[in-house]
Fold this sequence. Notes:
This protein is an alpha+beta fold. 28% of the residues lie in helices and 38% in strands. The protein contains two helices and five strands; from the N terminus they run αβββββα. Strands 1-2-3-4-5 form a five-stranded antiparallel β-sheet, with helices on one face.
Amino acid sequence: ETVDLLHLTKGEASYAMGWNVVERDWAGGEAWQQAGSNTMFHTVLWIAPRRNFAAVTMCKEAGTLAENKCDEAIQLAIKKNL
């Protein structure tokens, strides 16, 4: 129940307690995404609950290059594993 509550969107919103909630074909429907930086690291996380799948990437650097590389790496992880 707690997990469901944390990922519950309100109305048309696609944001649920810190998570972006979107529909993705590779996820079999709803996917939860989080990305961010503490100015020293950048992390991207995707969870596909209907596929029992999660992927995370992290760069020991922040900024646009780190964001782009983390996005590239996680897209590759998703393609290779689903």
